[in-house]
Write the structure tokens for this entry.
Amino acid sequence: MYTRSLIVGRALFISALGATIGVGHAGAQTPTTEELWEIIQKQQAMIEALQAKVGETEEKIEAAGEMIDQAASGDDDPLHWGGYGELHYNAGDTREIDVHRFVFFTEYEFNDKLRLQSEFEIEHALSGDGNVPNGSAGKPGEVEIEQAFIEWDVGEAQHLYGGVHLVPVGLLNEIHEPPTFFGVERNRVESEIIPTTWWEAGVGANGEIGDGLKYDLFVHSGLQTPVTGTSAFRIRSGRQKVAEASATDPAATGRIQWNGMPGVNLGASLQYQADLTQTADIDGDGRREEIDAWLYTVNADILVNGWGLRALYAEWDIDGGATGIGPSSVGRDDQWGYYIEPSYRFILPNAGANGDAALGIFTRYGKFDSQAGDNTDSEEQQFDVGFNYWLHPDVVIKGDYNQVSVQEGTGADRLNLGIGWQF
């Protein structure tokens, strides 16, 4: 639009200029051939100078038009941000209210193929040294960088990345914003067997193969579990969080997902840890003992016509180590867990903040054993029932009742309430 108008204007201007020059010489003495040639050269120089000016103006107007269009569409800013948070109240064996977490996401686009993704989180409202108001030593919170990686689009559906990244396992480790799952607290299987939230540093690739089939490959830093005490070889205690993390022995994770049918997402992952202890001298003889480990997971996430089903199984197969001192000595050479979670969602017309509220009800049964390698009765099972009420697709009020038993006949009941959001 800008270019066509300027071309027409330029033609009219040059025509008028030629006519003016012609009139100026009409009443004068007929010039010689040399004088005519000189006049033509001057006119040509003027025309070329004017054309150059017009061309520069066209470019500036076109650039301004593009900037206006980009501003109107909101695509001119390479920096994007968002986040999520949740507040919990727990009653039963404990009575506590807590700002469980508040998270900021940021994305910076260097161009349409290269970007920085990051996630900054504070847990439990306060972090640092010194007493909290209730008199306990030290503030309970943590400040964490859960993600900070460069992502590069090397194809239409193929991506490479490097930096701090969430490990591609399970259902909650990557997608755990409060409106996306049932229950106030995260389930125990994906806290103890898969230590959600779990992030590592490394390089990886992901993409689509076709027909709803996706893949993830990630080579990354590994866990470093304690080798003594009550947390010896406990998976959750092995997270280093990329904080001056020991990197003697790496790990690798691969995952396949299929979502070729609307509302159906199936996945399976495999991980190898070269040494869960990062070269610890377990028996004190001055030599390292490598404790390698494999993690296997399968999961399903289905939502069709309001009916939902989530299910997951995860198991660690860990080298037993030396007799009496390795993982087998505390039963942690075998650790497993599973859960199944049916649900149903009702759309509530003309309800909620914007007339788009929904109510969901669920129940969940799960069991895990982080010391399955011995003969002690160490299984923990959990039964949950509860609801999610979405005031808006990104704002949810939650409530649930759960019963946890460490072994048959003993247990604890708890009522949980919460509010969560994402933006």
Observations:
- The mean pLDDT is 87.
- The CA atoms of residues 88 and 418 lie 4 Å apart.
- Residues 2-70 form one domain.
